[in-house]
Amino acid sequence: MPEPLKYNKKFDELTEEEKKLFEINKKTIADFVEQSSSISDVDYATRNAHAKTYAAADGTFFIDKHIPEELLPFFDIEKFDLTIRLSNANLKIKNSEKDIPAYGFAVKIKDEKGGLIANFPLVNFPLLPTNSVSHFLKLFTAVNRFYIKKWSSFFSLATQMLKVIPSVCTFSFARNILKLLGKRNDFILSFDYHSVGAYRLGDHMIKIKLVPKSVDKNFGKKLKMKEALKHYFQDHDYTADVLIQFCYNLKEQPINKLNVEWKNSPYIKIGEVKIDKGQLLDPRDCTTELLSFNPFESKIFFQPVGKIQKLRDEAYKVSVQTRRKINKLLHKHQ
Fold first, then answer.
1. Which SUPFAM superfamilies match (predicted)?
2. How far is CA 81 from CA 32, 62, 303, in A?
């Protein structure tokens, strides 16, 4: 096997224009979160992405006995404790109609004393619709403003969405859209979950994939997702293989092109995630809603890599700080 490429902070560097756009974007994130309780008609401030929590659970990450020797320094004990949040990607919580099948599987890995090792927010669609940081920020800002100001900002949102079209016209993107359409009615736990961007593994860079074992895709078809998950974990354990890919060269495994999949990098199994039946956390516990899965809170050698990934750091901080401030105030007055 060739030697994987080494991490370089140049992969993360933003231009001055991108930094200015990001400041505008952060303001709209705070505005969105401040108004999120009325946007979603709930009695708390929500996240400004993956707002709806379907379930949170305790889990375990078992390290594979045949893990490559060079990876052992990162996974030096047999198992790690996890906190897992299952969510929907929509910015707005909807209770009436069926949710779009854009799901999140966020994982918090902890050490033996409960201290944080890494956060990995995984999703069931492995690509982003644009590689341009400027366009990504303008699109995200337009989406936030649309939810806050409604139809007065529709033209701005439509303009940014039209600009996405060229970058979604890739074989990878089309194939994954078709795959998602084919699985749109499937049970949330039957999907594979992916890190959209790359992450550090020490000096190297990886992508992560979670592949479930023997989950019935038709489970809970007639139930709402929260109910389906509650019923599933009354009688079933959930197990998924944890696979990683290394970045060997930027042509076939690009760090800052997030609209294509990595090629010619074999998947390596490093372990299994398991959620035992009966391990769902109490959905009424407000600490569940205060959980943060910011991947930049991870230990330095597990942190995200890439320009668009870099945006997540400040975006998560603005979102979580605004959300916690409002929710603590609401909690005091209840």
1. Heme-dependent catalase-like
2. 33, 9, 19
| CA 299 – CA 135 distance, rounded (Å) | 30
Q: How many CB atoms lie within 10 A of CB 219?
A: 17
The span from the CA of 300 to the CA of 321, in Å, is 22
> In sequence order, what DSSP letters do the residues of 50-88 get, joined into one string?
S-EEEEEEEEEEEEPTT--GGGGGGS-SSEEEEEEEEEE
The residue type of 298 is S
Q: Model-level pTM?
A: 0.90
Distance CA 198, CA 246 (A): 9
Please list the rounded mean pLDDT of every run of 10 residues in the chain (334 residues): 89 92 89 84 78 91 93 91 92 76 95 92 91 87 85 82 84 90 94 95 97 94 91 96 97 93 96 94 70 88 92 81 78 50
CA-to-CA distance for 61 and 219, rounded, in angstroms? 24
Query: By C-alpha distance, which of 293, 262, 258, 315 is closest to 105?
Result: 293
Structure tokens at 298: 């991870």
CA distance 110 to 70: 21
Scanning the chain, the segments in alpha helix (DSSP H) are 16-40, 133-149, 154-162, 165-168, 171-182, 225-235, 286-290, 307-332
C-alpha 233/C-alpha 236 separation (Å) is 5
